[in-house]
Specification:
By secondary structure, this protein is mainly α. It contains 17 helices and no strands.
Length: 427
């Protein structure tokens, strides 16, 4: 199977999985506070809804360890099929859950369980998808080919937000709260069937097959990556934090802050976020190709610096209420996100040896999500509630972006690394 077909298959799978993940984030920001936590105040209801959103990020490293183990032991292809199926089941079940009105405290408990299943499945998705694209890519073009699954989040978010936008425009608030929010979750069933059909038809990674033939598979990938490359694992995790933080500062906290605190139109904010996601999707392959020519490390450092600089304009422009300025604020943040996220599709796999590459890349990617995606939205909401100002949130964003910059600075350049050279990663 050609590298191009593998790249497209990886893109379609990640688009579906991130669609599943993002419809939850959008629903948590817009309606879950009243449907599942009606006895709490608006602020604490929103915090509770965002906390359930964070459960998925806690589950992702657990899934990364589990799927990484089998991905490094059994193969990339089989784990990708199982991860997509698990993610789909968790998403569809959310669409039929009872709310607090009919099930009481059982409703949020079931919501948290489904969210954990979602996160567990996604924990194995990204690592497998980028490894398939990277390990099939021709020499000198790993950044570009690995960017195909990196475009998946943009497409998944645009489709998810578009779904909510159409429903919001066509339904009254009462209809949307009663049943409209369920439609995107139930529609996931069809997308998962399409994704599974594509996944079962792709070929196994040639790099993994070579390692398996040479009996280079790790018996305990987690133990090996922690003992052999602990520094790479920690720095890779820190370098990824800025990507999650920027994305969810726009798509989750931005929506919640804009509609709840600023009283802005939900439709306007969704459109602004969708436009910024399109900008990010367009920028991703361009910036990934840059990393093939200029180096992963250099491109990531540039855009970590942009994230630090944009932390204050981002929320100041949001507070203007002007749709054009809000779209600008979101779009620049998403370009900064793409400037780090795009090279990371190749950068993280290149940091680790084949025998535990799935585990190492997946753990680094998903542990970063606990801080950047799971903690930042509710923490930012708490900071605004306590201070009445977005300044502490800007300081939080700038500080975490600086941490990521320092972590990337401490990593080696990997764009010329031979993925089949196992000794190169621990020297």
């Amino acid at each position: 199977m050609s590298a191009q077909r593998i790249a497209v298959a990886s893109f379609i799978g990640t688009a579906i999985e991130f669609y599943d993940f993002y419809i939850y984030g959008t629903a948590a920001a817009l309606v879950f506070n009243t449907l599942f936590f009606p006895n709490l105040s608006p602020v604490f209801g929103t915090l509770a809804a965002l906390a359930t959103f964070g459960v998925g990020f806690v589950a992702r490293p657990v899934g990364a360890v589990a799927f990484g183990h089998f991905g490094d032991r059994v193969g990339r292809k089989a784990t990708l099929v199982v991860s997509l199926l698990m993610m789909g089941v968790g998403t569809v079940v959310i669409g039929v859950l009872p709310t607090h009105e009919t099930a009481g405290v059982l409703a949020p408990v079931l919501l948290v369980l489904c969210r954990f299943v979602q996160g567990f499945g996604l924990g194995g998705e990204w690592g497998g998808a980028v490894l398939m694209a990277t390990e099939h890519a021709p020499a000198g073009r790993r950044g570009l080919y690995s960017s195909f699954p990196q475009i998946g989040p943009a497409v998944g978010f645009v489709v998810a937000s578009g779904f909510f936008l159409v429903l919001s425009a066509g339904l009254s608030d009462a209809q949307f709260a009663a049943w409209g929010w369920r439609v995107p979750f139930l529609a996931s069933a069809l997308l998962v069937v399409v994704g599974l059909w594509i996944r079962v038809r792709i070929a196994e990674s040639p790099v993994f097959e070579q390692a398996a033939q040479e009996r280079e598979s790790a018996k305990a990938p987690l133990i090996e990556v922690v003992t052999r490359q602990p520094r790479s694992l920690l720095l890779a995790t820190g370098g990824m934090v800025v990507t999650y933080m920027l994305f969810y500062a726009v798509t989750t906290f931005g929506l919640s802050f804009g509609t709840g605190r600023l009283g802005l139109s939900r439709t306007m904010l969704l459109v602004a976020a969708m436009i910024s996601a399109v900008v990010m999707g367009i920028a991703t392959p361009i910036l990934a190709a840059w990393s093939d020519r200029l180096g992963r490390r250099r491109v990531c450092l540039w855009f970590c610096a942009l994230a630090v600089a944009w932390a204050f304009p981002l929320f100041r422009l949001l507070e203007t209420g002007n749709p054009v300025l809000i779209t600008l604020a979101f779009s620049v943040a998403m370009v900064a996100f793409a400037g780090v996220f795009a090279p990371m599709g190749a950068f993280l796999p290149e940091l680790f040896a084949t025998r535990y590459r799935y585990t190492g890349a997946s753990i680094g990617y998903n542990v970063a999500g606990i801080v950047g995606g799971g903690i930042v939205p509710p923490l930012a909401t708490s900071l605004v509630a306590a201070t009445g100002s977005s300044t502490p949130v800007s300081l939080l964003v700038a500080g975490l972006a600086l941490v990521s910059l320092l972590c990337v600075w401490a990593l080696p350049e990997t764009s010329s690394t031979d993925l089949t050279d196992g000794d190169a990663f621990t020297r």
